[in-house]
User: Fold this.
Amino acid sequence: MTVDTRELNVAGSWEITPKLFGDARGVFLEWFKEPVFIGAAGHSLNLAQANCSVSAAGVLRGIHFAYVPPGQAKYVTCVKGAVLDVVVDIRVGSPTFGTWDSVLLDDKDRRAIYLSEGLGHAFLSLEDDSTVVYLCSSGYAPEREFGINPLDPEIGIEWPTTSRSGSPLELTLSEKDASAPFLSEAMAEGQLPKYADAQEWIDGLTSRRSLDCTPGVKEIHS
Assistant:
């Protein structure tokens, strides 16, 4: 197998590790394979938008999320540099509500992370010009996009204090991210997605996948 998956401590998120094929010319890898993705998530990735961000060392982005339905699932990798990518369970009613997990994304191991609908996403750049690419299941819709402060002590994300080279990191946040509410505040304001809604949405994706695979139901394309 050229791609391995590992479910993270936050249900609905996975670490994806590709096999690297290197020689004197460079490296080749398959960073996304639909059969492997379906085997983990239970449905296809509905690609609606692809994003790219470039960040200086110390730039901290997030915690970002979209309200469900439809939410916004993300398949993320770092094509240059390195970032610590973090998933946070912000789904009200989830058994692991408020917990987080992380994956180091870099241009060495070429890992990716998938976050299903309803989860929070953030990352810290560990090197100048770190370039992150996202495949998103829905387009940007500001009216249903929200954020939580990534330095919320209630969540307690252990952000690195040194860069990839070992030098001290000075965190840089956007004004919007720095002024975002803490998790408890966002919950009190009714901004957080509900676990039941997220599961219902994902179950619907899985059901549609099953119908597509049923003989006589799947549409035939020439």
Q: What stands out?
A: The two ends are 29 Å apart (CA to CA). The mean pLDDT is 94. Residues 77 and 112 are 4 Å apart (CA to CA).
